[in-house]
């Protein structure tokens, strides 16, 4: 899809926050990730320019169709890999950290093979 790991993390965070909040704002993302609001603002500008998000006049952030597609893919990978590593005996915190790294570099083919194997 040609998106950076950083962009994927932001999109995934927007998706996760939107599941538990009525609206998502830059300050929410900054708080969740532990980043400065100025850094998040730059990232949101880049995501907006790539048409992965829209931002309302009030500062509410929404995923576009392409942004949601990327976020859903990354989130699915994260959840499945975290659960799989935990079932293999990896500490849940370590499993989540490792899944976060793996989710960005694993090929679609390898991920689908793991998914089929687990089922």
Integer average pLDDT: 94
The helix/strand order is HHHEEHHH
Low-confidence runs? none
Largest sheet: 2 strands, antiparallel
Give the neighbour order of strands across the main sheet.
1-2
From the alpha-carbon coordinates, what is the Rg to the nearest angstrom? 15 Å
Number of helices: 6
Task: Give a brief description.
With 119 residues, the protein is mainly alpha-helical. It is built from six helices and two strands.
Descriptive key words:
71% helix, 119 residues, mainly alpha, Diphtheria Toxin Repressor, domain 2, 2 domains, Arc Repressor Mutant, subunit A
Explain the overall architecture:
This protein has about 120 residues and is mostly helical. It has helices spanning about 5-20, 25-35, 35-50, 65-85, 90-105, 110-119, and strands at about 55, 60-65. A two-stranded antiparallel sheet has the order 1-2. A hairpin with a 5-residue loop joins strand 1 and strand 2 (about 60-65). Helix 1 packs across helix 2.
Topology:
Blueprint lengths: L4 H16 L5 H8 L3 H13 L3 E3 L5 E3 L1 H23 L4 H14 L2 H11 L1
Antiparallel strand pairs: 1-2
Helix pairs in contact: 1-2, 1-4, 2-3, 4-5
């Amino acid at each position: 899809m040609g998106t950076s790991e950083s962009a994927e993390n932001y999109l995934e965070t927007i998706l996760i926050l939107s599941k538990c909040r009525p609206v998502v704002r830059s300050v929410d993302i900054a708080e969740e990730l532990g980043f400065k609001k100025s850094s998040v603002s730059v990232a949101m500008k880049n995501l907006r320019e790539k048409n992965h998000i829209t931002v309302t006049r009030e500062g509410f952030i929404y995923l576009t169709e392409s942004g949601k597609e990327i976020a859903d893919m990354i989130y699915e990978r994260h959840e499945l890999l975290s659960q799989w590593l935990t079932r293999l005996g990896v500490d849940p915190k370590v499993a989540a950290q490792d899944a976060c790294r793996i989710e960005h570099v694993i090929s679609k083919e390898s991920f689908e093979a793991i998914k089929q194997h687990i089922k």
